[in-house]
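Hi X.,

You mentioned you wanted examples for the new student's onboarding notes, showing what a folding record looks like when two proteins sit in one file. Here is a clean example. The first protein comes first, with its sequence line followed by its structure tokens.
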Amino acid sequence: MEKDQLFTRRRMLLGSAAVLGAAGVGGALMSGGGDEAARTTAGLAGPQARQALKPSAFRLQPLIGSGTPHTAAPGKLKVRHQPILRLTGKGRNMMLTFDDGPHPDYTPHILDTLAKYDVRAMFFVCGEMAVENKELLARMAEEGHVVGNHTWTHPLLTEMARRDIRDEIERTSDVIEDAYGDRPQWFRAPYGAWNRATFQLGAEMGMEPMAWTVDTTDWMTPGTSTVVKRVEHGAAPGVVILSHDAGGDRTQSVRAIREYLPYLLDHGYHLTVPPRRMT
């Protein structure tokens, strides 16, 4: 559990950064900002497993919730100055996202709950966890979840050289492609810490940057009831929920989703993932 404890200790040190990411979403949907703003801390259906895939040119749409995918001409992604913070579009759409996994003790239980209610979610995985639990990424693919890139070792990217950032991201994308069946189309910076290099490198590798709207702060293990309350009180159209399936003891996260997921569904929310588009 040393790796999990390291994640937790570093999160405690950078807790203010994560809170700033969650609190700062009110002023932006998918809008851009200046390069200086990008240096501040800011806060989306999975393919079948590789053996079931034909060579694919699929990419994911920007966050529009549900709807008919549109075709788009091939080309590089534009470099954003802020991460995408929430879903846009009509309807009571929300999205659940889980960071730091997959973890053999927690991720299967979260996947079981999602399967029970026929809900899809997004998992931002760390390469060092994914390489040890490839069967869980294959399951995510088979069950229609979206897998994003959360770097290899969960470092603070804003303190790293550009070549080292690229290595962290690229190695993780390679493992995801091998286990999940497709390269990731979304990237989330650890601790919600972004800068110009992270936006540029993510775009070069074909990934959109994604943050969150509501931070459950489950990484602080505040208690299952607190995590549930934060999701239920934060629920609204377009909201992206941040939770974790690794990086510490995630028993509370496992218990919480069993409570808040039926609540969200009973209140008319559609838990969605980004649709794919042809390039």
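Then the second protein repeats the pattern, sequence line and then tokens:
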Amino acid sequence: MNQQLTGYAPTPVVARMENHGRAMLKVAMATGQDLFARTGSMVAYEGFIQYEPNPPAVRQIASQWVTGESTPVMKCSGDGLLYLADYGADVVVIHLDDDALSVNGSNLLAFDAHLQWGVERVKGLAKFAGQGLWNVRVSGTGWVALTSRGTPVVVDCGRGEDETYVDPDALVAWSPALKVKGKRSFKASALIGRGSGEAYQMAFSGQGIVVVQPSEDSTDRLRIQG
């Protein structure tokens, strides 16, 4: 039986963050290299690792992340290997090199605690979506792990002059340097029983990437108001 299971055993550590399979994140923890992770995402660990839910240092920032719920962030510290997952969603690992990423809060799995981060309103969208869109901006040099409902596509917006249009409910993350605007449209899903009326896409242009998942977020983050 052991021989049959060898293909699932942990692999040697080669980076601070890496995938173990499609839907699990492996993090090499060390003293002084703390991690922020989505509360409840720990599935296993080796070594001595401590967890602090709702840490005071981030409580005020993360209070804007969700409404009516506790802070969805826990601080992880110690030495060992930490395994994180989010209900079988695909895990995407990104290393920022003095760069930034704007992430849908529900798709942010973990990030190095030394990175700068905060919840911010996406500019230029309030007139399309009532209250607008709030995202988590992470910047600096370090590791970030995202989740995607299925294998995502990463679109390089700098390859051509045309804008890239994305359904907001399928949007995972994008480069903050991109220009963003909304475009009204009649959503095709209104014709197949998923609702009716106007919706809109987000149009991206400039130099940067957009990460899109092959599944629309059921929270329906952005819709035309009024």
